[in-house]
Q: What sequence folds into this?
């Protein structure tokens, strides 16, 4: 493979030592890290070259990156995603992203790309800007399932520097995954025609290729979203507390005393959606709310995991959308600023459980732990790749 | 009315591990340049992940077992959020939901007899950094060397009722934790810190009074003064209505001898504890638990009883030796070689102690190898080295732990000679040179003999058995 064919782009949630890492926030404008993300180091070791960095929304929990302090990328009133633009244009073979709240999966669906979010713990999170640590994973975005697989293989594996990193023998369990033969389809999901069209097409392709698709009903998904929003915002609130204007990053010019230094720096540097998430997360962790809200969501996470275990006792994968529509308009998010907390209905199940998910052909497949290679294999039917 | 003071303690102890709790930075930075023992992880930089130092859990378990606690076989770490410039990530990783040890008990002894103090829990956590205020420049500097140094916090039940009991309790903790070699526990070094929760109630009442938590006492003496001051303040408020007592945190000013309110319960921040998703629960399996359990030392009392029974030491000697695990190990090492408990104990309690005192060292700072000491003792009892020279060798062994006593004695001319011919020659020379002393002795002045004896011993560099020398000297004088 020549150099051009192994050029990748890295989203701005992964720390780099030769370029600033900002997490899309004014708070980290110009922040130069002393260390590099492990996933990036491993990609380089596998002879991938780094073409550059792609912008993200502020701490990357928005829809597609529209909350970046550099401004949203909008074309004809439609929201765009930086990593997906670069990969779709052919400027890079693939992108390494941090999937905090489904952004790379939504982007993959809307750009007809492939995204793989591996099993939690299989790729080291060392050197990724922490947001929702209990569910976020480094993921790969590319034009083909084969390219996703190759880059994922290069970055996966145990890392002593990440306490949640799985042992090597577990990481290697992906090679034992059984092929996908039976797929469950979530009934009555809410999505527009642009999405149902993709789902119908996927069902048709699967059926043609001898893969059985069976509709199931499950109430757990709405609860999974609510719980994920609580856990994500609480962890986010805690993780962004370190940006206080004292040690690095943005510092307000005017303040008197340490409390004002904190308050003014954070007030001036943080964007609106982030502030909303901080306030919400902070409330869920208060002594008054902890048991009522946060602890309940931790228990909900366990129930969601159990529900998935039940589904996977019958099926090899779950088919569902990655987004409710194939285009997000600027107008739509202006009308509903908290849209992302509804829209993550489709991405929250894999985020909260740590299960692998693959997006291809505009649809999402969630599988049991360590099934990402099997999911990528079946995704090739949708991308029309030779197996 | 008579009142009683109800006291519970929160004692922070720095664990003596080599590295910090979640990164590989050295945990020992006492006296080091600011920010010379730091890395991106303990500075709270984004993207660094905590990896639990297993030794910290080992030490936490040992501390728990020494204090008769139950060990939580699944122990977890949680985040405690607050803003302060010495806390770089704006959260402290600590144990809130499942601390390593719970439900312990420690027995103390005071002038009023023995008492059991219940331990609520022991949790492991990371220390914060230090702020250094520069008054001349009107600036504050942050030193992160201490950030993430492992601590345990030992939380007692409110079972203490006087400054004397508090002192006995702290001394007991210090002894037990030093026995297990998990901590130095030196208040002057900041490796043991103590917050006092205190309330006052009418004697015999079963209702607790309004509680004050006092911080910033840097010595046992300061703790005692703070308890006395605070008790008096509470009684004054109750009896004379001088002020309304509130549940609050107070700062002790040892120079002024007063406590000042820092924050009340209402103005205290909410720490928003939640499980740290980056630290997996630590599961202590049977093998690990048993490994730690079997590594525990004998308790001081058990050792003391054994020393009087097994080694027939006096109560006094046994008590003195068991004050420090370092003394015990030195003694047991020496005994292994000498098989003589009395000699081994005497050497430690006299000669070793003399050097420790002269060098202003604590018992626990003793690193002398007991087996080497035993060898030295045998050289003396075997008549190979004189006692005065043995003391010189011992001092040298303090400076250089690699010294082998026998070899050192030979190399430095400290070996006693059996060659009486050499001694006789020296005696003859000394007598010839000092006829006055000889005459004095013959005239009945015993002291004159000592002068001659001393001169001879000096010439012989101490390498002659004193009894033999004395006999030879008298014989020679009588001949003359």
A:
């Amino acid at each position: 493979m020549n150099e051009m064919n192994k050029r990748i782009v890295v989203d701005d949630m992964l720390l780099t030592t030769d370029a600033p890492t900002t997490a899309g926030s004014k708070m980290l404008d110009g922040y130069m890290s002393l260390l590099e993300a492990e996933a990036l180091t491993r990609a380089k070791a596998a002879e991938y070259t780094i073409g550059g960095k792609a912008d993200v929304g502020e701490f990357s929990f928005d829809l597609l990156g529209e909350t970046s302090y550099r401004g949203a990328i909008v074309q004809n009133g439609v929201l765009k995603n930086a990593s997906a633009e670069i990969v779709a244009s052919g400027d890079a073979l693939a992108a390494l992203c941090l999937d905090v709240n489904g952004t790379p999966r939504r982007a993959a669906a809307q750009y007809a790309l492939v995204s793989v979010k591996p099993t939690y713990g299989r790729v080291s999170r060392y050197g990724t800007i922490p947001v929702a640590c209990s569910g976020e994973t480094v993921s790969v975005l590319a034009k083909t399932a084969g390219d996703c697989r190759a880059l994922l293989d290069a970055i996966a594996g145990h890392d002593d520097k990440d306490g949640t990193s799985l042992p090597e023998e577990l990481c290697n369990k992906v090679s034992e995954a059984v092929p996908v033969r039976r797929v469950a389809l979530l009934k009555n999901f809410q999505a527009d025609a642009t999405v149902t069209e993709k789902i119908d097409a996927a069902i048709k392709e699967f059926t043609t290729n001898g893969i059985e698709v069976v509709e199931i009903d499950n109430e757990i998904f709405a609860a999974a979203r609510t719980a994920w929003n609580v856990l994500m915002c609480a962890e986010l609130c805690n993780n962004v507390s370190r940006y206080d204007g004292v040690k690095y990053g943005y510092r307000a010019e005017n303040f008197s005393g340490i409390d004002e230094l904190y308050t003014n720096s954070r007030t001036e540097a943080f964007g609106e959606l982030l502030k909303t998430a901080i306030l919400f997360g902070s409330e869920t962790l208060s002594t008054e709310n902890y048991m009522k809200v946060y602890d309940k969501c931790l228990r909900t996470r366990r129930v969601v995991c159990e529900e998935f275990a039940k589904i996977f006792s019958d099926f090899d994968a779950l088919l569902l959308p990655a987004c409710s529509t194939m285009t997000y308009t600027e107008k739509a998010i202006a009308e509903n600023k908290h849209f992302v907390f509804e829209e993550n209905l489709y991405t929250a199940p894999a985020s909260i459980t740590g299960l692998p998910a693959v997006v291809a052909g505009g649809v999402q497949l969630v599988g049991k732990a360590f099934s990402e290679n099997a999911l990528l294999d079946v995704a090739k039917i949708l991308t029309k790749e030779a197996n | 009315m008579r009142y009683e003071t109800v006291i519970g303690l929160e004692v922070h102890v720095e664990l003596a591990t080599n590295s910090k709790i979640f990164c590989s930075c050295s945990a020992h930075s006492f006296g080091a340049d600011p920010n010379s023992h730091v890395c991106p992880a303990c500075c709270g930089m984004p993207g660094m992940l905590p990896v639990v130092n297993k030794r910290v859990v080992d030490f936490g378990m040992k501390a728990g077992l020494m204090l008769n606690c139950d060990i939580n076989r699944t122990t977890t770490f949680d985040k405690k959020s607050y803003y302060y410039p010495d806390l770089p990530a704006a959260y402290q990783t600590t144990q809130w939901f499942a601390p390593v040890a719970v439900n312990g008990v420690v027995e103390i002894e005071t002038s009023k007899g023995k008492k059991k103090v219940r331990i609520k829990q022991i949790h492991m956590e990371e220390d914060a950094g230090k702020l250094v205020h520069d008054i001349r420049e009107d600036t504050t500097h942050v030193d992160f060397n201490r950030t993430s140094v492992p601590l345990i916090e030992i939380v007692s039940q409110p079972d203490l009722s006087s400054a004397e009991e508090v002192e006995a309790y702290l001394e007991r903790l210090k002894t037990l934790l030093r026995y297990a070699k998990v901590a130095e526990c030196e208040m002057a070094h900041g490796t043991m810190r103590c917050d006092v929760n205190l309330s006052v109630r009418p004697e015999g009442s079963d209702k607790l009074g309004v509680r004050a938590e006092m911080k910033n006492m840097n010595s046992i003496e300061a703790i005692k003064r703070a308890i006395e001051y605070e008790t008096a303040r509470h009684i004054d408020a109750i009896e004379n209505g001088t002020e309304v007592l509130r549940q609050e945190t107070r700062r002790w000013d040892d120079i002024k001898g007063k406590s000042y309110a820092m924050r009340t319960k209402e103005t205290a921040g909410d720490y928003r504890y939640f499980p740290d998703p980056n630290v997996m629960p630590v599961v202590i399996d049977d093998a690990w638990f048993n490994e730690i359990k079997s590594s525990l030392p004998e308790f001081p009392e058990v050792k003391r009883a054994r020393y009087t029974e097994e080694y027939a030491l006096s109560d006094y000697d046994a008590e003195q030796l068991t004050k420090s695990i370092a003394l015990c190990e030195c003694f047991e090492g020496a005994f292994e070689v000498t098989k003589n408990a009395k000699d081994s104990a005497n050497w430690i309690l006299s000669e070793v102690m003399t050097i420790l005192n002269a060098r202003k060292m604590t018992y626990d700072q003793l690193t002398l190898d007991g087996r080497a000491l035993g060898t030295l003792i045998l050289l003396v009892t075997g008549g190979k080295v004189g006692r005065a020279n043995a003391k010189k060798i011992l001092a040298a062994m303090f400076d250089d732990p690699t010294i082998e006593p026998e070899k050192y004695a030979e190399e430095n001319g400290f070996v006693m000679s059996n060659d009486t011919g050499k001694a006789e020659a020296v005696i003859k020379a000394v007598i010839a040179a000092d006829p006055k002393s000889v005459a004095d002795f013959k005239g009945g002045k015993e002291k004159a003999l000592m002068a001659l004896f001393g001169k001879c011993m000096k010439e012989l560099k101490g390498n002659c058995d004193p009894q033999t020398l004395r006999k030879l000297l008298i014989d020679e004088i009588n001949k003359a």
